[in-house]
Amino acid sequence: MTNYDPDLAPNPAEWLALDEQVRIDLxxxxxxxxxxxxxxxxxxxxxHAIVENQIALDLESVVRAMARLQREGLSRHDxxxxxxxxxxxHVYEAMKSSQQDDASTTxxxxxxxxxxxxxxxxxxxxxx
Length: 128
Known about the structure:
Blueprint: H1 12-17, H2 20-33, H3 41-56, H4 60-71, H5 76-96, H6 103-116, H7 119-126
């Protein structure tokens, strides 16, 4: 795999065979080539990679959300952003929380948030 297009799902086996940094670099390169201006391209690319990894690993809540968000009118790229925003919020909350949840509780909380996500809720929150 030599390039990345957020509107085309990468082959899961090929994607997961890449080194994580290569995945992030491919995503960052795509955004640079398409002249998308970002406050922090590395962080943006890392969250793209997180969501692509979850899809490639067949995380059911994320796979369902991708399909649902696209049916609701988001492009694949925007659906990645919507799920990435949920992921970023959960990372932020975990970092600031003094609560010590186990992995299954944290995962269940994330899955529930992804399941609640809709194109409308994402557009309302982020104005896209």
